[in-house]
Design a protein that fits this description.
This protein is of the alpha+beta class and 125 residues long. The chain contains four helices and five strands.
Length: 125
């Protein structure tokens, strides 16, 4: 009988750690770009939960693979300029059968939506 290790190879704790570091680096770069440009933002989603939980019990912190940021829509032009200068790639992606869209910043060429900073706009559904 084949095992996961015989099919996939041994677990790489180093790759796990590298994956976590990539998300942390993406978060730091995105928030630094916004802060340096004087743009108000809040970290939300999985990273915000992880930050809060780590203060209570670091043994239950779970990792997320993307970065979610709460911003104001009226800052969008400045956000695009700041994030592009920080080497992120802006994309507007249609969702819900064309009834909406998501603004995101890919973490470099060849990356996927999961490797992005996603924007959520304050005071919007």
């Amino acid at each position: 009988m084949e095992t996961a290790e015989s099919v996939l190879g041994p677990v790489s704790w180093e790759r796990i750690s590298q994956g976590i570091e990539k998300v942390k680096d993406r978060l730091r770069r995105a928030t630094r770009a916004l802060a340096d440009a004087g743009i108000d933002y809040a970290v939300i989603g999985g990273n915000a939960v992880a930050a809060w939980v780590s203060r209570i019990d670091d043994s239950v912190v779970r990792n997320t693979r993307d970065v979610d940021l709460l911003v104001r829509r009226e800052d969008m032009k400045a956000i695009v300029e700041a994030m592009t200068a920080a080497d992120f790639i802006h994309r507007t992606v249609s969702i819900l059968g064309g009834k909406g869209s998501i603004e995101m910043f890919l973490d470099g060429p060849g990356t996927k939506a999961r490797d992005a900073a996603h924007l959520i706009f304050a005071d919007e559904k």
